[in-house]
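Hi R.,

Here are the chain sequences for the assembly we discussed:
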Amino acid sequence: MQGPAVVLRCLDAKSPVLREIRAGLEEEGVPLVVEEVSEGDALVLGYAAACLSSLDVGIGVADEVCVYHAKRPAGSPALTGPLSRARVLGHNAARMVVGIPLK
Amino acid sequence: MALVVGVDIGNSTTEACVAEIRPGGRVTYLSGALTPTSGVKGTTDNVPGVVEVVRRALSSAGRPVRELSAVLVNEATPVISGLAMETITETIVTESTMIGHNPDTPGGAGLGVGETVAFGSLPDCAPGAKVICVVGSGVDFEDAAAGINKAVARGVEVTGAIVHADDATLIANRLSAPIPVVDEVTLVEKVPLGMPAAVEVAEPGRTIRTLSNSYGIATVFDLDAEQTRMIAPVARALVGNRSAVVVRTPSGDVTGRRIPAGNLTLIGEQVKRSVEIDAGAAEIMATLRRVRPLTDATGEAGTHVGGMLARVRDTMSELTGTAVGAVRIQDVLAVDTFVPQEVTGALAGEFALENAVALAAMVRTSRGPMRLLAEKLREALGVEVLIGGVEADMAVLGALTTPGTGRPVAILDLGGGSTDAAVAGDGVVRSVHLAGAGDLVTKLIDSELGLDNRELAEDIKKYPLAKAESFFHVRMEDGTARFFDEPLPVEAFARVVVLSEAGMRPVPTRHNLEKIRQVRRSAKHKVFVVNALRALEQVAPGGNLRQIGFVVVLGGSALDFEIPDMIAEAVAGMGIVCGTGNVRGSEGPRNAVATGLVASHALDVSLETVG
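And here is the predicted structure of the full complex:
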């Protein structure tokens, strides 16, 4: 694992949804690392991503977007939302790291 | 042996005290109870509340209603207070000079000055033109950045940008030459085009320097002295922002205006004086001291104060069924406050704090309904109902059951609508009812923080604040940390929260914890400390506070976590023992009047047996 970053796990790294999430994080100034894996739903991907992240925040992308905080229990994501809200969820994942109220 | 219940009908709660009185007048207190008052104090609407509280008190004493020999109610002269608040200054931004604005994440840094141009018109700009690009909704950040880069490559000097969406950093990151970008401008389509404008963004952790300085704006727009005077309120409104936009239009001016708030006329028994509302609270209260005792107050018709008092009178007359003309205002408390007003012509719904005066007025109404109330109670309970002594006397008697008190004792009854005080010296009780109490504090908190949510304001008044620092802990306002086993709700994350009994409640504003705390404390100080001193001064023998030995703080607001301390601190210098009451050594600051009713009745019984 390299420098401080939010980790995102997804099934397709070329998905246009990722551009939106990345934009959300970039706006808040928080780095992101993307990992493509072969299987899992957003919950599973998100929790694994959070555990990998040195910032304790992970995002899982499958049929929905799931934002996890590693300190929260496995079945309890901080936020979930449809793909259409990807940008806002990206913002909020970053805000959890920065420590400002979510939007 | 007689079983009696003392019942105190207050403005917001009805309290009962059950006791047994032996023939010699010896009292055994059995239990107490409390319910919200039904209806306006002193009216027959109170009956259901009284019945309820009597039942509850009896059931917790384990005694049936049929054993009851009498219900004692206080002779409640209904004291009702009303509140009104009026702005006395106003910042007006005419038509098109727009100001603002402070998004969480602006992009770039520095100051850009130029003419406003719509993003779509950038290709039409001549090389060498200095422009501020206005990007409307629906433009993707990559397209916006590409468009600006293309214009810059042609020689157009794009010096800044105003953006609708939340993507200033994204645009700034993609520009060949960095410029300040302000985003989240909700009314971006209202930004006038073809006008000189300035955009300023400060580095993270800093605030803007040029647009928050009148001379800075004057330099940017080449203003003369008179124009600079006009723009000064804009600069003032922008102080402390991380970013700002100022658009200068030919007719655009900003002025601070004092609204003629009108004259308040205070009519005393001997003298009558007028005072201008916009002279501020201190002046109003000083004038009140000069005319005391007050018999009525009137406001100039057609002015704000006239409207304020009319509203109070109307409410009172409606509540008590008296004619508007018969309502006499017995006391007023004026408090300086701020009211957030939407700035006309703001870019994203910004607010400016305007000076205002809040006025609490109190009316004492007729005693008529009391007999009717007793009659109805007799029917409802099937027990004899006795109207007991004057409320203040009863409160003093009840307060004296607090361990450690002695005469001369003064009570301060801090309620929802009024602050009452009484002093018992040698047999005579002197009492005073003053306008302004808990409800006014709630209103001040609500308006000064711009919450527009009375329930939340009430919680902020009653409970300590904390900031949710992670999903598992909060930092309390005194700096201590508190941890939770369950993760905190996402809405609370990084927000200021109120730790109420019902749980954690986020405060949805941008105010930081320190600011909310300061507003809360100053509201309590402005109402309760001011009223405590005012009340004690009026009841103290010879007006000398040093003649009072003990002050017992009673009433709902005495349960507040900081008000009693504030009052104790304020009177400490006068050698007064001051603390929250503990009626009968068990009831805290509650139940004083109910207990006093029983004690007074027992005294009567003992005198009868002796006689």
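Strands of chain A lie at 6-10, 32-36, 57-61, 65-69, 79-81. Chain A has a mean pLDDT of 93.

Let me know if anything looks off.

Best,
T.
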